[in-house]
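User: Okay, second chain of the day. Same drill as before: sequence in, structure tokens out.
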Amino acid sequence: MEREPQTTAVNGLSRAAILPVIQAALKEDIGARDLTVSALIPRDQQAKAEIVAHREGVIAGLPVAEMVFNTVDPKIRFKPLVKEGERVYADKVIAFMEGSARGILSAERTALNFLGHLSGIATVTALFTEKIRGAPAKILDTRKTTPGLRLFEKYAVAVGGGVNHRMGLFDGVLIKENHLRMVSHRTAGVFGHLSAVEESVRVARRQSLKNTAIEIEVTTLDEFRKALAASADIILLDNMRLNDIEEAVRIRNALFRSRKEKRILLEVSGGITLSNVRAVALSGVDRISVGALTHSAPSLDLSLEIVG
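Assistant: Same drill. Structure tokens below.
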């Protein structure tokens, strides 16, 4: 049976926000009870166990794993043997626990699922951030996350050295291609598609709360110039060729050297890989958003081994 955990927070994530997700994951796996441990393991049997990393990676989610074990049995003692965000190598023991054998075995898979998934995200994020070391750009995540796990996954990006983009639609304006299409349809014959860029920024700024950043996605240099003229706070260069990205940076820099106005941030997305991210970062953009951090990161191979 699930019980209240002793842990009160996970590195800035509120217990109230993450506990329901952990409880749902445990219910999904254990259901009414773990039939195997109920049949084989006496209630009073104690155990010691270790979690082992079987390949190199960056560890993220140790506090989440601890909360999983403590939710099943608050008396299980969980001791991390590495720091959150630490890079480890194959066969490294990363945590030790002792307590109820039933509790440890029942919580094992759920804890490892969280820990392996978050460590995988942190590992991929660290690879991207290492690739652009020395460049002014930052690596950002996106909203391409597993439904229900966004808080966890964005936390893992931060552990890996990345920067969180908006958490959801509620905390930032990002005008994308489909928004522009709808504005174009509504204003057909009045503004035209490119003018829809300027109109969208103008309306979004008027309708939004003060100090809300207005970001707009563009796919061509013509659209970029319109967004620049509209004074969007951030311009997202989506799936643009490197030479066009470099030209956009040149135009932005020349404009703001001459006008001495507030500098518009440039973000790049689409087709970003470990092989091209450094070239993009060196173009002079400010931000590079990478959906693969969360939607394609392979889970770090971990196992729990009973040692006593």
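The CA atoms of residues 80 and 86 lie 11 Å apart.

User: Thanks, on to the next one.
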